């Protein structure tokens, strides 16, 4: 249990992706079954403990200590799990001489009935130390919130077993905790587990960006072009009555889109883009799509107002027949025939973009006909469907990013190699009436600049600090003073969380405008105009 | 009789009882007031009217008694300073030899009379030279703890509980969430990480007086025998600790001259926390930021400060030590100074011990 607790502690405090991967791989290597598999399930959200509810915790702790002192403590710490783990009264002599394993803890919690849940939890907390208590409470409350996604955990498994992450994704939905067969395979002690479950995920094929000079070497006649839709890449798989919608990393997102899942009356695997609207009439914008994202429950009204549909790119399987080995041209032919059998309000075909040469396509790419198109895709007619990101068969050629001139407002120190540099920048644009302009923050970026530029900005931040809040410095920024940053971004979402009402997608610093006076930076209206398109 | 005049001013009517009147009568009459006549807060710090001195004043005063050398407790510019020899030495190192008009060294346990008030210094276990100050007058004893801890520390004398009527306790970590683990466990985590990431350097943020030397000594006690690299701000104080017989092993300045960037790969570097946010830290390869402090108990606090390896090593008492110490002193009344007073006052109420916050200002958490 302590090893799992230690893992959680380290993951919380390790900001870098590579650092987290190292910690996870280390854990998988040194911890035995079933503990490592249970830890994995806790991280990916696949561990279910039914008998214990978070609300119980507060009751249990205030039965054991003065509620006023608990209140002071909770106010100070701000996190219930952490507060309870720290203030839980330690009964001397109650710590077992052998600490329970994660497996034992999980087994006890899962075996508990609703009525004896509190007693079981109390017993576990009494016999654990502070870190272990924190880990137990996190197991019980679910949602570890330790900055590790299921995707990252799968990458760690792939690193651990030196296999492609696509293989893990493909297997994943047929497996269940504690994943003993999976670990045995990754350690080379057993054959790859055979998947017998229905409607499994198929690792998706991804594209590479068009680089400088790439196109000169290619013959336009070898490639088909499609619009690149800026929705959510999904895979719809239906087989033997099981219907699943997967994200491109293999997460099951069916629950969020019951309207689309209901329309999957087929036995096939489709690759496409999830969008909202009615494909026969109008495709919704990204802001519309956002209404359907990250929701726990979907109301009928929401489904009616923003119906989900799938714009299909590819057909991977039909009945018993795996099409992935066929050429794109053949698969596309099969797809066109297949689409005709589906509900036209839920499925349509991604149209081709006709072009005679690269220059003609470039013109189309720059001025796409719909705001939710973010460029064009190029697919080789003769390419099979291959998992991962092979170089050559598929290219994405994105619309140029939007840019805005913004003023640096706050800077925060980075981590690791950048811990002595102010490297995370919050920037704003002007708003308010003439003569009373003020800056409103519109985004945050921490890359896009060179090491040399980082040094220059860092010096600027240190020389122009107005206030400090822990690792954050507020930088002098008014009509006459301020550093203008040219910020590039992919798109803009409406946001109720930010004062400016907008949130940038994928912002990065594209240029430092030392030459530009702060009062000539852009105004919020420039960004709002992008939203309303 | 200047003393009496002051008491008269503070409690009109008292003098009419006369000095020779029954002591018991006075005590019952003054119950709850008497201790605060002996010591009470003023803007400058804790003041003793009959002895005419301040304890740890934050502004220059005529006569100061200093518990320990941290800069929020020990300031320069007082007329005279009474403190332990080591605290005086540390003040001289920090402020220069002329940091006060005159100085007097207090031996631990020895009683000194100041205008009829008896004062004595007793080890506080906080940092080298740190002491509690017991103030005794007319049969009443008040002990000002200064900062203290109860965990064993090889770099200073251990805390001695003193029986008293009023105990003035610090409350830096006065919340039930603060529970410091054994320091040896924390150092073991540092050494484990150093083994896990031999290509990176470990930058340990630790306050220049006390914490830094304790961390170094703990590393030595755990068997780490490679040179430790230190920031310039630690040099004088660490040298002083060594001169006092506290072995810190081989210390090297963490200067670029002492080696190129790669020479710090795998090194443990100790410096004041502020230095690691500074340009100074750029000389180290892909550093892991560590911070030795009681605050590191709270994950979010560590995360917000960009600390990757928090080391919960504190020179202050944690919640359990605070409450245990209060009981050990047998004090009937507790005054709580700097820190999270309200929780400790609440605890005293639940235990049936009279308690109140003193609201002294000007003390930061330099020592942690």
Order of helices and strands of chain B: HHHEEEEEHEEEEEEHEHEHEEHEHEHEHE
Q: Main beta sheet of chain A: strand number and arrangement?
A: 7 strands, mixed
Low-confidence stretches of chain A: none
Oligomer: heterodimer
Q: Please report the number of helical segments of chain B.
A: 11
- Which chains make the largest contact? A-B, 33 and 37 residues
The gross shape of chain A turns out to be globular
The fourth-level CATH homologous superfamily of the largest domain in chain A is DNA ligase/mRNA capping enzyme
Number of strands of chain A: 20
Question: Any guess at the CATH architecture of the largest domain in chain B?
Answer: 4-Layer Sandwich
In terms of DSSP E residues, the strand content of chain A is: 15-25%
Low-confidence stretches of chain B: 1-33
Task: Give the total of domains of chain B.
Answer: 2
Structure description:
- The complex is a heterodimer of chains A (533) and B (368).
- By secondary structure, chain A is α+β, with helices and mostly antiparallel strands.
- Chain A folds into three domains: 2-141, DNA ligase, ATP-dependent, N-terminal domain (DNA ligase i, domain 1, Orthogonal Bundle); 208-398, DNA ligase/mRNA capping enzyme (D-amino Acid Aminotransferase, Chain A, domain 1, 2-Layer Sandwich); 402-531, OB fold (Dihydrolipoamide Acetyltransferase, E2P) (Beta Barrel).
- Chain A is built from 19 helices and 20 strands.
- In chain A, the strands form four sheets. In chain A, strands 3, 4, 5, 6, 7, 8 and 9 form a seven-stranded mixed β-sheet that branches.
- In chain A, helix 1 packs antiparallel against helix 2 (17-30), helix 2 packs across helix 10 (150-161) and helix 6 (80-87) runs antiparallel to helix 9.
- Chain A starts with a helix and ends with a helix.
- The mean pLDDT of chain A is 91.
- Chain B has two domains: 32-177 and 316-357, Metallo-beta-lactamase, Chain A (4-Layer Sandwich); 183-311, Rossmann fold, CATH 3.40.50.
- In chain B, strand 16 (288-292), helix 9 and strand 17 form a beta-alpha-beta unit.
- Chain B has helices at 2-10, 23-30, 34-38, 85-95, 183-196, 211-221, 235-243, 273-276, 299-304, 319-329, 341-351; strands at 40-42, 45-48, 53-55, 63-65, 78-83, 100-105, 111-114, 117-123, 131-137, 140-144, 166-171, 202-205, 228-230, 251-253, 268-271, 288-292, 309-311, 333-339, 354-357.
- The two termini of chain B are 43 Å apart.
- The interface between A and B is medium-sized, with 33 and 37 residues.
């Amino acid at each position: 249990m302590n090893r799992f607790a230690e893992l959680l502690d380290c993951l919380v405090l390790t900001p870098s992706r590579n650092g987290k991967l190292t910690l996870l791989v280390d854990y998988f290597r040194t911890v035995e079954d079933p503990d490592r598999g249970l830890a994995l399930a806790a991280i990916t959200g696949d561990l279910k403990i039914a008998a214990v509810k978070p609300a119980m915790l507060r009751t249990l702790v205030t039965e054991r200590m003065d509620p006023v002192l608990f209140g002071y403590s909770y106010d100070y710490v701000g996190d219930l799990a952490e507060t309870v783990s720290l203030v839980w009264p330690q009964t001397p002599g109650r710590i077992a001489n052998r600490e329970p394993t994660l497996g034992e803890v999980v087994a006890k919690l899962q075996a508990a009935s609703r009525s004896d849940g509190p007693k079981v939890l109390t017993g576990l907390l009494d016999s654990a130390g502070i870190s272990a208590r924190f880990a137990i409470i996190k197991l019980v409350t679910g949602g570890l919130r330790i900055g590790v996604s299921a995707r990252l955990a799968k990458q760690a498994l792939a690193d651990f077993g030196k296999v492609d992450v696509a293989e893990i994704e493909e297997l994943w939905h047929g497996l269940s905790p504690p994943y003993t067969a999976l670990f045995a395979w990754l350690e080379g002690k057993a054959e790859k587990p055979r998947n017998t479950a229905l409607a499994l995920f198929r690792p998706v094929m991804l594209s590479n960006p068009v680089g400088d000079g790439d196109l000169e070497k290619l013959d336009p006649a070898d490639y088909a072009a499609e619009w690149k839709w800026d929705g959510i890449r999904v895979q719809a798989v239906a087989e033997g009555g099981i219907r699943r919608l997967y994200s491109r990393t293999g997460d099951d997102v069916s629950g969020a889109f019951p309207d689309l899942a209901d329309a999957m009356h087929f036995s096939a695997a489709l690759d496409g883009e999830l969008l909202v609207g009615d494909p026969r009439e109008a495709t919704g914008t990204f802001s519309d799509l956002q209404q359907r994202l990250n929701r726990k429950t979907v109301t009928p009204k929401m489904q009616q107002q923003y119906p989900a549909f799938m714009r299909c790119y590819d057909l991977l399987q039909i009945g018993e027949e795996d099409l992935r080995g066929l050429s794109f041209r053949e698969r596309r032919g099969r797809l066109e025939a297949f689409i005709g059998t589906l509900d036209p309000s839920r499925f349509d075909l991604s149209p081709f973009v006709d072009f005679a040469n690269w220059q003609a396509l470039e013109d189309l790419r720059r001025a796409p006909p719909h705001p939710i198109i973010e460029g064009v895709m190029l697919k080789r007619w003769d390419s099979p469907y291959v998992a991962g990101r092979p170089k050559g068969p598929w290219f994405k050629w994105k619309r140029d990013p939007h840019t805005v001139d913004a003023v640096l407002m706050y800077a925060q120190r980075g981590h690791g190699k950048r811990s002595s540099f102010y490297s995370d920048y919050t920037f704003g644009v002007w708003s308010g009436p003439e003569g009373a302009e003020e800056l409103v923050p519109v985004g945050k970026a921490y890359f896009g600049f060179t090491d040399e530029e980082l040094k220059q900005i860092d010096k600027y931040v240190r020389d122009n600090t107005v206030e400090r809040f822990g690792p954050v410095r507020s930088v002098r920024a008014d009509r006459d003073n301020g550093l203008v940053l040219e910020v590039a971004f992919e798109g803009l979402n409406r946001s109720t969380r930010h004062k400016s009402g907008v949130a940038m997608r994928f912002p990065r610093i594209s240029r430092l405008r030392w030459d530009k006076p702060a009062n000539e930076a852009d105004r919020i209206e420039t960004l709002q105009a992008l939203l309303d398109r | 009789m200047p003393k009496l005049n002051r008491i008269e001013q503070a409690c009109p009517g008292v003098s009419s009882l006369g000095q020779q009147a029954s002591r018991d009568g006075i005590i019952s009459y003054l119950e709850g007031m008497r201790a605060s006549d002996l010591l009470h807060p003023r803007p400058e710090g804790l003041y003793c009217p009959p002895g005419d001195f301040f304890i740890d004043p934050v502004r220059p005063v005529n006569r100061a008694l200093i518990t320990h050398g941290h800069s929020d407790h020990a300031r320069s510019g007082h007329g005279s300073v009474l403190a332990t020899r080591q605290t005086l030495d540390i003040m001289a190192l920090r402020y220069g030899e002329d940091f006060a008009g005159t100085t007097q060294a207090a031996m631990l346990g020895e009683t000194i009379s100041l205008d009829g008030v008896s004062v004595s210094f007793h080890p506080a276990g906080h940092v080298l030279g740190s002491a509690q100050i017991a103030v005794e007058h007319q049969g009443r004893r008040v002990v000002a703890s200064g900062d203290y801890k109860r965990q064993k520390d090889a770099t200073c004398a251990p805390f001695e509980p003193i029986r008293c009527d009023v105990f003035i306790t610090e409350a830096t970590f006065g919340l039930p969430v603060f529970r410091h683990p054994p320091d040896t466990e924390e150092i073991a985590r540092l050494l484990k990480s150093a083994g896990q990431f031999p290509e990176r350097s470990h930058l340990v943020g630790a306050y220049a007086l006390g914490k830094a030397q304790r961390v170094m000594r703990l590393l030595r006690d755990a068997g780490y025998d490679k040179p430790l690299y230190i920031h310039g701000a630690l040099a004088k104080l660490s040298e002083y600790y060594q001169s006092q017989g506290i072995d810190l092993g081989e210390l090297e300045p963490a200067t670029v001259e002492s080696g190129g960037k790669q020479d710090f790969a795998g090194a443990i570097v100790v410096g004041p926390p502020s230095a690691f946010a500074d340009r100074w830290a750029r000389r180290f390869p892909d550093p892991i930021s560590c911070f030795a402090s009681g605050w590191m108990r709270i994950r979010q606090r560590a995360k917000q400060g960009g600390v990757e390896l928090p080391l919960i090593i504190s020179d202050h008492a944690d919640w359990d030590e605070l409450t245990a110490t209060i009981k050990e002193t047998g004090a009937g009344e507790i005054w709580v100074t700097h820190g999270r007073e309200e929780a400790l006052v609440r605890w005293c109420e639940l235990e049936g011990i009279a308690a109140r916050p003193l609201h002294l200002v000007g003390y930061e958490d330099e020592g942690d």
